[in-house]
């Protein structure tokens, strides 16, 4: 957090708003980069994900500006255009400008407005900020300190790309990208020194990646909520193996590629057949059934969303918990992802025992993450 938690300048305002939306039951991520062909075009101040009902999901963006002359009308038009480009379900603009005409323009554009009066009210509340959480800047500083020692920016790039996956074809593509990053971070955690600064960073990134895995799987689940258990299991497995709910649709590009091989490559038919057989063999050994069976057999409809919020909150805790200190549901979910990634559970658990391991910690008490502000059913009134 900034020096003054109630300062509404720049990053501090974004941090305050993220806390506000977390309190409201949203999954909230700050500074999400919007990329096109690998190039960063802009970033979304806050990206939101909401689960209003059992079968509906909403993605929203927040544009937050706290300049002395915020040019709020221009920001309304800019935010409207970005929301349409990203194909999200709605957008907020948060500004220190308190002119009544903002709400009028916002209503015409279909945007929600948090104006200067709203921000002052949020700012005055003593119950918004989470003192136990790192700010985004503090999280990034921890990552940069590791990259500085390694003399590269590889870990910062991982953190950057984990968040970017939320805007880039959110759904099956996000499932697979976040699974890839979880596998990478979990493996790296087992290779660094026990309880080192590097271990702390990799356990944080492992938890964050796991949160986005759960979130994107929840989004997939909303599309198949009325299917039978076997159909849902198959759909989850297809998403992980083929990047699509349906195997045939997922292999459409493969069929196009093999058709071109048959047409333009000498002995193309034989080569095409060999490529198809080899690819299907490789895809079949991806242990997607581990995840599919666990979700369908051991999780309720709203458990994935709860898990996503729980793991995100865990990743940002100042005194981050070790694997063994997490509640049983979080440990079970992480264990499934570790098995999928072929990372040894015991090595993962022993790589970070946490700062709280030095204290007299009651491992039977895991109520703080379950009963905290993220899991209150009643939302604060705006």
Short description:
By secondary structure, the protein is α/β, with parallel strands linked by helices.
Describe the structure.
The chain is of the alpha/beta class and 382 residues long. It has three domains: 11-124, Trna Endonuclease, Chain: A, domain 1 (3-Layer(aba) Sandwich); 136-225 and 301-375, no CATH class; 229-290, no CATH class. It has helices at residues 11-23, 72-86, 101-109, 116-124, 136-150, 154-164, 172-191, 197-223, 229-242, 247-250, 252-264, 268-284, 288-298, 303-316, 328-341, 345-351, 367-370; strands at 27-36, 39-50, 58-65, 90-95, 112-114. A hairpin with a 7-residue loop joins strand 2 and strand 3 (58-65). Helix 5 runs antiparallel to helix 6 and helix 7 (172-191) packs across helix 16 (345-351). The chain is globular.
């Amino acid at each position: 957090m900034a020096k003054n938690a109630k300062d509404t300048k720049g990053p501090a305002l974004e941090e305050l708003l993220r806390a506000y939306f977390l309190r409201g039951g949203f999954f909230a991520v700050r500074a999400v980069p919007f990329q096109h062909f690998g190039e960063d075009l802009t970033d979304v101040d806050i990206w939101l994900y909401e689960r209003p009902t059992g079968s509906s999901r909403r993605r929203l963006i927040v544009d937050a500006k706290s300049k002395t002359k915020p040019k709020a009308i221009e920001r309304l038009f800019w935010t409207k255009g970005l929301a349409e480009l990203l194909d999200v379900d709605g957008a907020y603009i948060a500004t220190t400008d308190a002119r009544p005409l903002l709400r009028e323009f916002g209503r015409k554009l279909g945007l929600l407005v948090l104006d200067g009066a709203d921000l002052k009210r949020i700012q005055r509340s003593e119950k918004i900020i989470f003192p136990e959480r790192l700010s985004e800047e503090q999280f990034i500083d921890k990552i940069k300190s590791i990259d500085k020692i390694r003399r590269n920016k590889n870990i910062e790039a991982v953190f950057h790309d984990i968040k970017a996956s939320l805007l880039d074809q959110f759904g099956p593509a996000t499932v697979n990208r976040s699974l890839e990053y979880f596998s990478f971070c979990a493996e790296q955690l087992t290779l660094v020194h026990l309880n080192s600064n590097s271990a702390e960073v990799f356990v944080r990134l492992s938890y964050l990646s796991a949160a986005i895995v759960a979130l994107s799987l929840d989004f997939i689940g909303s599309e198949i909520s009325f299917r039978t258990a076997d159909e849902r299991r198959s759909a989850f497995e297809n998403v992980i193996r083929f990047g699509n709910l349906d195997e045939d649709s997922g292999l459409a590009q493969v069929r196009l590629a093999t058709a071109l091989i048959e047409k333009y490559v000498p002995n193309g038919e034989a080569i095409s057949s060999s490529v198809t057989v080899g690819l299907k063999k490789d895809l079949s050994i991806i242990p997607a059934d581990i995840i599919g069976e666990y979700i369908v057999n051991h999780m309720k409809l709203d458990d994935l969303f709860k898990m996503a919020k729980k793991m995100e909150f865990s990743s940002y805790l100042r005194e981050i918990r070790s694997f063994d200190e997490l509640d049983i549901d979080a440990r079970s979910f992480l264990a499934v992802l570790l098995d999928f990634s072929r990372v040894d559970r015991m090595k993962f658990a022993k790589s970070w025992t946490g700062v709280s391991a030095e204290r007299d910690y009651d491992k039977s008490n895991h109520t703080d993450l379950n009963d905290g502000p993220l899991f209150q059913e009643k939302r604060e009134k705006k």
